[in-house]
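Pilot study result, target chain (339 residues):
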Amino acid sequence: MKPVFFVLAALGALMLATGASAHVRWFVDGAATVEAFQPYSITDIEVIVWIAIAVGLVFASIVLDMRLPTVRIVDSKTRHDFIELLRVFSGMSMLLTAYEGAIIAPHLSAFGTFGTVLLFAQAVIGIMLISNRFVRHAAILMILLHLGLAIKFGFLSAMEYLIMPAIAVFLLINNLPTAELRERFKPYSVDLLRILTGISLITLGVSEKLVGAMMAESFLVLYQWNFMTSLGLDFFTDRLFVLSAGVIEVVFGVIMVLGTTTRLNVLAFSVVLFASNVLFIVQGESEAAMVEFIGHMPVIGVALILLLLGAGQRLKVTNFLPQRQKNPMVRTVRVPSDA
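Predicted structure:
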């Protein structure tokens, strides 16, 4: 896959993305409110039930992981191709988001001199990644950009999009200047990508759906994504739907951090990502679908890495548990040292 092709693809997507800059967090106006909005309390039965479900899911993931075989890692050429895909997807997302006048995410609009500097740096990083030039330097700049994002928009926003420095660290390790350095740190690159992405998911679940439930409920009023009532579950209000979505996203993140049943976890999470884009398209919101897809491009790249390159076998919780039980009827496969 040649760099010229990726540049042309980025320019094509850039044209499609024109006009998307009006969108803000949750695709609703920042002043949106829900009539008679009432946040949940930790003592509410719905919260208690979902906490119990979350703990059960995490525990089940740990137990299941201890009994599953190690899945074969794809060959080195396929690994290389999907690392390249992550690089290109991340670069295109950064370039297109910069074109919209935002830093990393559409709702983080750049303003002021410092914001303009960050915007320019993000566009340059995007071009470097797409063109496959100075990737190691681009990765370092991505980390510095994220520090700038933290300064500009606060620590919470930086934690919500921790997936971007996670990608930067992964690309940096895979493009270290010497074979000796790559051999030393590469075995941990997927683990770090997985763990930091998991922390990002946990933060987003808490901030956008649990603490930020009002905006999420406003979104449901506008787009009517609560499909549970159409299944006859009338008790499943928008309020409960948001709580459920937030807890599930936190569970996705916790399991990702722990490193248990990562492929199954990523598959389930990918279905959610795909469904969100499909729902926007079905509802005729093509502009929102494009913004959603651009924002999800780095996440898609990470998901493919975790699915095909291995979930990271060095830093996972089951490695530290005594007497790991394996299914004796299933033959496991050694993980390559460079995976």
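One observation from the pilot: Residues 1-24, 325-335 have pLDDT under 50 and may be disordered. A full batch analysis is planned for the follow-on phase.
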